[in-house]
Amino acid sequence: MIFKERKMSDELQMLQALDRRMALSPKDHKNYQHLLKGFRGEAQFDQLLANLSCAHIQIHDLLLEHNGTVFQIDSLLIMKEKIIVYEVKNYQGEFFFEQERFFKIPRQEIMNPLHQIGRTAPILTQLLRKHGFNIPIQFHVVFVNPEFTLFHAQQNTRVILPTQINDHLRKLNSINTQLNQTHKHLAEKLIKLHLNDSPYQNRPVYEYDEIRKGVVCGGCGLMAVEVKGRKVYCKRCNWVEHLDTVIVKLVMEYKLLFPNKKVTVSAIDEWCGSLISLKSISRILGQYFTRKGSLRWSYYE
Question: What are the NERD domain coordinates in residue numbering (predicted)?
Answer without folding.
Answer: 37-147
